[in-house]
Amino acid sequence: MNRPTVIGVYIGAIWLYSFSARMPAAVGVMGQYMYNANTMECDLGNANKVARLVYLVVDAFIPVMLIFILYFFVFIMVRQRNKKGKLTKLVVKY
Question: Which of 22, 67, 79, 83 is 20 to 30 A from 60, alpha carbon to alpha carbon?
Fold first, then answer.
């Protein structure tokens, strides 16, 4: 599973997800980027509350949930391997 092509597909999928998540606002389909004088940066304008909610879910909630799910699977795999005796103890000598 750690072959370079698989890792390349993962990286490409992450970039595609990030790019496609921002395109609707960039072209003005859902929301619009505006200059915020208070924070001195460009962000979504407050005019479209639905767009802000959608971007909150797409940019924060979905990635965080994926991280939790994947770390859960990593924890389960490590625990199963440890029960089978395939993990060795790490000894650190000073």
Answer: 79
pTM above 0.90, yes or no: no
Residue extents of the structural domains in the chain: 4-84
Distances (CA, A) of 10 to 4, 55, 61, 77, 94: 10, 22, 19, 20, 38
Strand, coil or helix: what is 5?
A: helix
What does the pLDDT look like over 12-58, one tens digit per residue? 998 898 888 888 877 878 878 888 888 888 887 777 788 888 888 88
Q: Are the CB atoms for 33 and 26 separated by under 8 Å? A: yes
Q: Rounded to whole angstroms, how far apart are CA atoms 31 and 18?
A: 16
